[in-house]
Design brief:
Layout: E1 3-4, H1 10-17, E2 22-23, H2 25-28, E3 36-41, H3 47-58, E4 65-71, H4 84-88, E5 89-91, H5 92-97, E6 102-107, H6 123-136, E7 137-143, H7 145-155, E8 159-173, E9 188-199, H8 201-205, E10 210-216, E11 220-226, E12 231-234, H9 244-254, H10 280-297
Length: about 300
């Protein structure tokens, strides 16, 4: 079944060309089912690219998913197309004020990881979203800085600066093979990483509410869960498309920044060659497993949350 998004959303045409199942409001209204309601709090500066990346994965499911895009009302985005946020997004305070309920919520990463959390201009608003989601969302998926922010706000887990940026495609292990999110996974799988900091593993392990589901010595903690899967914290970017790391690498080069070639990404670590995608299948599987978990566990009547 498809994801439900406006036909005027730029991602609609891009996903249709890829044969991703999408559906318009008119057609959805004539289907006698309750779609999953999933909100996406998009904090990434690459607004449209991030929409497409996440919708591509959410659309590869037998479930109909009704998508809502959320933004920080206290933060002015400089990178979204003119009028895009006003047309397709609602502010988080509107969602909270109207006591809106979601089956699932995704909180993306953001390019603010070197700042102390409290110095991020929308921190108080994000903290309010995190508090709201605990009571009004069945399962929340936090990505990269969004994961660090969630672990810090809810459990006091600090972030630590890495000696150098963790950048590239890395193998990850599975600690618990029989959990819902890893159904069908191989014992080792690849996923993109792009970050300067990490959440403190000792602080995570000290909290009995938190379970480290995936980690390696090279990457550190990759996936943490809490409340039996109702909170997922993913430190990397399974949603990245084939050229995302390439764009980040060349962007930093153009800025004159000291940046390593993304590891295990270009054939022979040669940036002149086309990257090889080796994480796509597990990315789709992860998001399908998450949606399936939400579908199986969320109340039919969201008022019961």
């Amino acid at each position: 079944m498809p994801i439900k998004i406006p036909k005027t959303l730029p991602a609609y045409n891009a996903l249709t060309k890829e044969n991703v199942f999408v559906i318009t409001d008119d057609r959805a209204e004539h289907q006698d089912i309750r779609p999953l309601k999933v909100g996406i709090l998009n904090l990434m500066p690459t607004t449209v690219d991030t929409e497409i990346q996440l919708l591509r994965l959410l659309g590869n499911s037998p479930l109909q998913v009704d998508i809502s895009f959320l933004r920080m009302g206290s933060h002015e985005s400089r990178n979204a197309p003119p009028g895009h946020l006003d047309r397709f997004y609602v502010s988080s305070d509107e969602i909270i004020r109207n006591d809106y309920r979601y089956d699932g919520l995704i909180i993306t990463g953001a390019p603010v990881e070197t700042l102390p959390f409290e110095e991020v201009d929308y921190w108080k608003e994000l903290a309010a979203v995190l508090d709201y989601s605990a009571k009004n969302v069945w399962s929340t998926l936090h990505i990269c800085w969004g994961a660090q922010a969630g672990l810090y706000h809810r459990y006091g887990v600090p972030k630590l600066e890495l000696p150098r940026k963790l950048f590239g495609i890395f193998p990850h292990g599975v600690n618990e093979r029989h959990t819902t999110i890893f159904r069908g996974f191989d014992d080792e799988f690849l996923a993109p990483q792009s970050r300067h900091t990490e959440s403190d593993r000792k602080a995570i392990a000290a909290r009995p509410e938190l379970t480290i589901e995936s980690e390696t010595d090279e990457v550190g903690v990759f996936i943490v869960t809490a409340r039996e899967g109702r909170e997922l914290y993913v430190t990397g970017h399974l949603e990245y498309d084939p050229l995302t790391l390439d764009r980040e690498y060349r962007r930093d080069l153009d800025k004159g920044l000291l940046i390593n070639v993304p590891k295990n990404y270009y054939p022979g670590d040669d940036p002149s060659k086309e990257p090889v995608v080796r994480w796509r299948a597990h990315a789709h599987l992860f998001f399908r497993n998450w949606l399936n978990y939400v579908y199986q566990e969320t109340p039919f009547d969201l008022g019961e949350l």
